[in-house]
Design goal:
The structure is a single chain. By secondary structure, the protein is an alpha/beta fold. It has 14 helices and 14 strands. The strands form three sheets. The protein has a seven-stranded mixed sheet, sandwiched between helices. A five-stranded mixed sheet has the order 3-13-14-12-11. Strand 11 and strand 12 form a beta hairpin. The radius of gyration is 26 Å and the shape is globular. It binds pyridoxal-5'-phosphate. The site of pyridoxal-5'-phosphate has 15 residues, from helix 5. Pyridoxal-5'-phosphate binds near residues 137, 203, 204, 298 and 352.
Length: about 550
């Protein structure tokens, strides 16, 4: 049983938080100490406080407490980092001993609950919002994104058809047109043509729906019985969601071609390999129908060259999807737009605004060139969802552009982020992150014990301790140990990948609170722990 206090006077339980005179400790009672709803008696004769799930005064009172709690969290992440190990240090199953075996019969107070969050949940949180978080790709938050989520939770509409909340559908169309213009996407991705945008929950959902659309488009042409002959292409750096999407879509595993990459193309897909693979497959009677290109791979932020890949896709009539989950966000800056040159020949494009555009999770805009392909694959028309509109124009029903029926009003927060910050601020923030990554890269480059492994395009630096005697296996082991050592400090969190059988360390800047001092401190921690592996043991 580890019922350890979270923090030692500087964490949540100090005078800054919810228990600073705000909480009344009386269960579901309002600010005056009165019960919400009438008292009742259960079968055992015990008094039960009748719940009133949505009471505006209780919401006002407890909403303020919660906002204070969250604001204190962000403040304390910066002021008292020692209380928030960036990578959670708990052991598997830690929570089981801390919580009761069954749910309570009677209401508990928000104060009790938030006490448990501080003491029991927080130790098991990996602090993605810590300024010293440098792992994977960040999950970017902002006040605007947070407020948008709040408004979304408050309205709680389910805009699966236009009718079920016209504003939810219409705002999504408008905001995705705005974002498409910021990215300078070709006009055919705008809602004014045959294409349009839709906000999926995640990049995984986005690639799945376009694989299904492309599959049905080709099967319509060649006949359903040829499903086993369909082949798809991507590089060996493509996100694992692509394989999953293909398998869900009934594509045979042996028909998924993951083309080899190496350092000669900085891990981008070689167009020559693609064309050779397609020619070979055609000669064997296969039907190439889908290419997944990536701008900013998960592993090393590699960029597949869209111009030549798009020409190949066009030549063979293959659907090309561009997965720009992380790096697509940077393409709102004119200097990074070049990475999606060639997008004119793509059929679909996806980015995660929750990764680097400050739209709290989840928010994954997807644009398609031909919305009817998507709708043909995914539409459902049960009688109970039928409705008539007075306008002559057909309305968008986003249920037909995604897997699930229910959907959140995600465009609200994207709209709020774009309006409350303005695109110039967003561009500058992304540029600042890239500068911080460059700063880290300079540290690495100046240290002879380390090397930068790939050419950096955005805010991810791939680096490692160099092998001191050419022994790659030993070198991998040392980098693995270094990773474990720095992450176990709780002071920073970095992650890793493998490139050409080398164990690589990843330093990705993207958390909204990160400043230069955090990057410098991270480098000092890495250097300190690396000294164990260097020849003279110190710098
Ligand atoms: N594609 C790329 C290039 C990614 O980096 C990621 C996640 O990091 C994904 C897809 C999956 O995104 P999601 O987690 O939104 O499904």
């Amino acid at each position: 049983m580890h019922d350890r206090e979270f923090g030692n006077g500087n964490g949540y339980s100090n005078g800054n938080g919810y228990n600073n005179g705000n909480g009344n400790g009386n269960g579901y009672t309002n600010g005056n100490g009165n019960s919400i709803g009438n008292g009742n008696v259960n079968v055992n004769g015990a008094k039960v406080i009748k719940m009133k799930p949505m009471d505006s005064e209780l919401l006002r009172e407890q909403g303020h407490i919660m906002v204070d709690f969250i604001a204190d969290y962000y403040k304390n992440l910066q002021d008292s980092p020692q209380d928030f190990p960036v990578l959670s240090q708990v052991q598997p199953g830690y929570l089981r001993d801390m919580l009761p075996d069954s749910a309570p019969d009677q209401p508990e107070s928000l104060k009790e609950l938030l006490d448990d969050v501080s003491k029991k949940i927080m130790p098991g949180i990996t602090h993605w919002q810590s300024p010293s978080y440098f792992a994977y790709y960040a999950s970017s938050t902002s006040v605007a994104g947070f407020l948008g989520e709040m408004l979304n939770a408050g309205l709680s509409v389910v805009g699966f058809t236009w009718l079920t909340s016209p504003a939810a559908t219409e705002l999504e169309i408008i905001v995705l047109d705005w974002l498409a213009k910021l990215l300078q996407l070709p006009d055919h991705f705008l809602s004014t043509g045959n294409g349009g945008g839709v906000i999926q929950g995640t990049g995984c959902e986005a690639v799945l729906v376009v694989v299904l659309a492309a599959r049905d488009r080709i099967l319509k042409k060649v006949g359903k019985t040829l499903l086993p002959r369909l082949v798809v292409y991507a590089s060996d750096q493509t996100h694992s969601s692509f394989r999953k999407a293909c398998l869900i879509g009934g594509i045979h595993e042996e028909n998924i071609r993951l083309l080899k990459t190496d350092s000669s193309t900085n891990y981008g897909m070689p167009p020559k390999s693609l064309e050779e693979a397609i020619s070979h497959d055609l000669a064997e009677g296969f039907i190439p129908f889908f290419i997944c290109a990536t701008v900013g791979t998960t592993s090393s932020a590699a960029v597949d060259p869209l111009v030549p890949l798009g020409e190949i896709a066009k030549k063979y009539g293959i659907w090309m999807h561009v997965d720009a989950a992380y790096a697509g966000n940077a393409c709102i800056c004119p200097e990074y737009r070049k990475f999606i040159d060639g997008i004119e020949n793509a059929d679909s494009f996806n980015m995660n605004a929750h990764k680097w555009l400050f739209a709290n999770q989840t928010c994954s805009p997807l644009w398609v060139k031909d919305r009817y392909s998507l709708i043909d694959a995914l539409k459902t028309n049960p009688e109970y969802l039928e409705f008539k509109v007075s306008t002559k124009d057909a309305v968008v029903n986003y249920k037909d552009w995604q897997i699930s029926l229910s959907r959140r009003f995600r465009s609200l927060k994207l709209w709020m982020v774009l309006r409350l910050y303005g695109s110039e601020n967003l561009r500058n923030f992304i540029r600042d992150h890239v500068k911080l990554a460059k700063h880290f890269e300079d540290y690495v480059a100046q240290d002879p014990h380390f090397e930068v492994v790939t050419t950096r395009y955005f805010s991810l630096v791939c680096f490692r301790l160099v092998p001191d005697d050419g022994d790659e296996e030993k070198c991998n082991e040392r980098n693995r140990e270094l990773l474990a050592a720095v992450n176990s400090t709780g002071k920073i969190f970095i992650s890793h990948t493998a490139l050409s059988d080398k164990f690589i360390l990843r330093f990705a800047v993207g958390a909204p609170l990160t400043e230069e001092k955090h990057v410098t401190e991270a480098w000092q921690i890495i250097q300190k722990h690396a000294s164990k592996f260097t020849r003279n043991g110190h710098y």
